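Revision sheet: structure tokens.
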Amino acid sequence: MTPLQNPSYSAPPSFEFIAAFKFLFKGGNALNNILLGAVMNLIPIVGPIMLMGWHCEILQRLMKRHPNPIPKLTFDDFGYFLGRGLAPFIIVLITTVPLVFISMFVLFAVSFGVALFAGTVQPQGGEPSPLIALGGFGVPFLAFFAFLILFNVLLMAALTRAELTEDIGMSLDFGKIWAYARATWKDILISYLVFIPLTFAVVFGGMLVVFVGVYAAVIIIMIAYLHLRWQVYERYLSRGGEMIPIQTKSGPLPSEQRPAAPAPPPTPR
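Predicted:
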């Protein structure tokens, strides 16, 4: 991989959600990538790590305006992508585990607070007020949803850095993560509110295909989410944001390396 030279960034006025879901179907390898990606997803731990390495390659190719941004998934590149996916996997693990526990605490604390409030304002033995009952469900849900958005903003920032740098130390620069999240939270919020309903529609469509279509739907959603991260980053750069370094240590994919041409036969004397 070579560094991006003199890039030109121009973001569209609005997010292209349909283009994100169509992205996987560009080129002639869509069916292969969906089937093999679904198989990889079923392999514990190493399968998702391998797919994360594939995602690194795709995002970097998008940034470099590669004519074939989605390489064909093959077992020839399994070990290669497995090594490259390790950094994003560790970053997601480090980011997700604490936030999951915090989200559970927030949900419990808000629910307990609502229940305590309902107990103080409701006469003993009386019927529960519809307003209090609505608050008992609505307030925790809204609090959890707000925290989920914050979680997604931070996760998208950390994951974008990990996929571009493929470096754990650079990816864990919390100052850079926070600066990127603060600059892109509005874009992520808009994209999140539209993307989630679309994912439900895609999953429901997969369930209609004898349920096994759900596995294909997951791969489509993963690549659409990757494309959406790229759109957010492009919009960030178009506003003058600081560019995230793109790793340069990886070479061509093993499956795309052309064998050396055979030597010509000796000229007869």
